[in-house]
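Re: that chain you flagged

S.,

Sorry for the slow reply, it's been a week of failed gels. I finally had a moment to sit down with the sequence you sent. For the record, here it is as I used it:
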Amino acid sequence: MASQSATSILNSVRQIVQALRISSRQAESQFGLSSAQLFVLQKLAEADGPVSLSDLAAMTLTHISSVSVVVSRLGDQGLIKKQPSADDARRSEIKATAKGLKILAARPQTAQEELIAAVGRLQADDQTHLAKLLERLVEEAKFTSTGSPMFFEEGAKNKDSL
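Prediction finished late last night. Pasting the structure tokens below so you have them in one place:
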């Protein structure tokens, strides 16, 4: 039989996943965008001008390959603009378009943003401890090979992952 702690841990994980899933479904039905796409668009809107893909990955706390999938989809919809940097032609600069900013003005905060804000409110020691415990949990469950796409972004590395 599972311990009370194990039950509590799994219930907490379920609540987080459920909140992320509901947020993603709402974004999809309201705006035709995933919550990951809204999140990336929000981070671009918060920036002081165009940003590189690596800067955007850091801003969204994800891997560059994961955010690249989202950027491509936003670009296809005309919600962001990607162009070569004036300083370095090898580097692209990304920014939200007027169409993208209009969508942002109408949307509520995503569960992903709320989760990141909640983590940010934890003490630094608690963040470190939680990170180590979650990394260990992922290793113990042998989930290490599934990659880390953005939450509920279809087609990112592994379609069946969060």
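What I noticed first: The two ends are 28 Å apart (CA to CA).

Talk soon,
D.
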